[in-house]
Specification:
The structure is a single chain. The protein is 7% helix and 54% strand. It is built from two helices and 23 strands. The protein has helices at 6-22, 198-208, and strands at 25-26, 34-36, 42-43, 53-57, 71-72, 78-85, 92-101, 108-111, 116-117, 127-130, 141-146, 157-168, 171-182, 188-196, 215-233, 241-262, 271-290, 299-318, 324-335, 339-342, 349-350, 354-365, 369-382. Strands 14, 15, 16, 17, 18, 19, 20, 21, 22 and 23 form a ten-stranded antiparallel β-sheet that branches.
Length: 383
Amino acid sequence: MKNIPQMLYKQILSICFLIALFGGTVLGQAGPDQDVCEGESVTLGTENSSDKCYIWEPTTGLSDPRSGMPEANPTETTTYTLTVIGSNFSSRTTDQVKVTIVDLESVSAEPKICCWKKGDPITKDQFEITIDPPSVKSQIEVSVLSPTTAPAVTFATGEVEVTLRVTCGTNTEDITTTIKVVDEDFEISHTPTEFSGDILESKLQRFASYLPGPCTPSVSISGGLTFAGGKLCCPDGSECIKSYFKPSGSASLAGGISCALPVPYRIPYVAEANIIVGVGLNGAAEASIKTGCTPEENEFCFELKAGGSITGGVGVDVLGGKLIEAQLVVIGSASFPVLKKCKGSPTETFGSLCGKVDVEGSVTFASFYSKKVAVNVVSQRCW
C-alpha cells in the first residue's frame, strides 16, 4: 500500500475510517500482550495482508502504523489499538495489545547454595534471579561485579555482600544480595595436657658418668593433647554450616650425648684442647581425628617421624677458659622417611630422606667479648 499515490491513499484511508465507524465488528488480530526491555523491539499483530487496511493507534514507537505486523519499540508501557478493514471493505475488526516496559527495580537475587568456602569462585549461575514479569527473564543478562571470589572473613563464618549487574536492553541495574562464607582454615585450639621427660634425662646423666671424659647428655620428651575446632561449609548436607572437632595427640623423643675428649698434648694449667664428638636421635608420633560434613568424610591420620645427627669438632681453653674459650663443631643431621597414613587414602605416603651439614661455634675472650658462629655448609637435600 506504500506505492499508492498520496492523494489516493488519503481517500482510501478516509473510507477505512468510515467503515471502521459504521462496519461490523469481529475478532481482532493485534496479538498477545508482550513484555519487553527498554530499547528492545517486539512484533505486533498476527498477519499482514495486502488487501486489508491496518490502522494502529497510537503510532508512537511503531515502525509502520499501517502495517499489519509493525515493530514496536516504545519508551514506556503502551496499549496499542488495531483496526483492520477487510477486503472490499467487507468488515471491520478491532483489537488491543499491551506492550509493557520492564522495570528493573523489581529484580532481586537469592543464592542457590547455602554457603561458600573462602576462595571459592562466585558466579552468576549460583544465584536465582527473580524479575517481574517473569516472561522477560530470558532477555536479561547477569554478571557478578564484586567480589568474584569468596573473601576472607574475620571469624570462622561471616556474611558478605555481593553486587550483581542486571542488563535488560539499554537499562542496567546493580543489585546486592548476601552470601555466607566459611573460613575452614580458622581454628580455635586448646592444649590442656603437656608432659616432659625430666626423669629420663637424669637416668641418662648417670649413664654418661661411666663414659671417658666429660660427657653431657641431652634428652627431651614432650607431647600433649590438643583440641581444635572450627566450621565447615557443607552445601550438600542436611546442615549447611557445621562445626567440626579435631582432637590430636603427639609425643616426641630427642636424645643424645656429646663428649669432650681431652687431647694428650697440652700445657697443664695453661691451655688444653678437646675433641668433641656427639650423636643424637629423635622421633615423633602424631595422631589426629577431624569430623567432616558426613560420617564418611571423617578423617583419621597417623604420622611417624624420625631423625638423627652426628657431631664432631674441637674445643680450646686457655687459662681454664678465663682468657680464651673456643669451640667449633660440624653437625651432620638427617631426617628419615616419614610414614603417614590417613583413613580413606589408597596408599601410605612416605617422605624423602633428607640431610644437611652445619658448622656451629663460639669464641669468648676474657669474659667480655663473645661471638657465636652458625654457618650452613651443605643445604638440605632430599632423596
